Amino acid sequence: MRAVVQRVDGASVVVDGETVAEVVGEGLCVLVGVTHGDTEDKAAQLARKLWSVRILEGEKSCSDAGAPLLVISQFTLYGDARKGRRPTWNAAAPGEIAEPLVDEVVAQLRALGADVRTGRFGADMKVSLTNDGPFTVIIEV
Q1: What is the pLDDT along the chain (141 residues), one digit of tens a residue?
Q2: Domain CATH for 49
Q3: Of the residues 35, 74, 108, 118, which is catalytic?
Q4: I want to staple 75 with a disulfide (CB 3.0 to 4.6 A). Which of 35, 92, 120, 137 is the partner?
């Protein structure tokens, strides 16, 4: 699993003109990609890392600050554009594998006590955010 994690001062997801999720103030916007061979154990490992990574103001984690996370499925994180002009998506897991694993990341975060908002799997989402810092890290488990 791969996650692009951005420290934000507000973020939202809009689908068909409707705001389906929003973080107001300090938090994390997390784009999650799933590849072949990813498991529920990896989803749990990613959730623990997201909950505890110290990238908020004052080197705090979401668990320290009680900050929310906006988790959005993003199969394009496994795009490969090394050859030609068009990326391939061969490394991205198909939706029937990816969706339950992204849901598992969210469930594990919530079990840890996190306030989690989500995008809508497979939808054409418009993601807006204010990157605070800017601060962006990639986490791979």
Answers
A1: 999 999 999 999 999 999 999 999 999 999 999 999 999 999 999 999 999 999 999 999 999 999 999 999 999 999 999 999 999 999 999 999 999 999 999 999 999 999 999 999 999 999 999 999 999 999 999
A2: 3.50.80.10
A3: 74
A4: 92
- Selected catalytic residue, list 6, 19, 35, 75: 75
Contacts of 41 (CB under 8 A, 6+ apart): none
User: Which residue out of 6, 39, 45, 76 is catalytically annotated?
Assistant: 76
pTM: 0.95
Q: Are 90 and 83 in contact (CB under 8 A)?
A: no
DSSP string, 48-65: HHHHH---BGGGB-HHHH
Residue 69 to residue 67: CA distance in whole angstroms? 7
Q: How many domains does the chain have?
A: 1
Token pair of 67 as six digits:
């900050």
How far, in Å, CA of 103 to CA of 121, rounded?
Answer: 9
Residue 74 among the catalytic residues: yes
Annotated active-site residue 19? The verdict is no
> Is there a catalytic annotation at residue 75?
yes
Q: Which two three-digit tokens encode residue 1? A: 């699993």
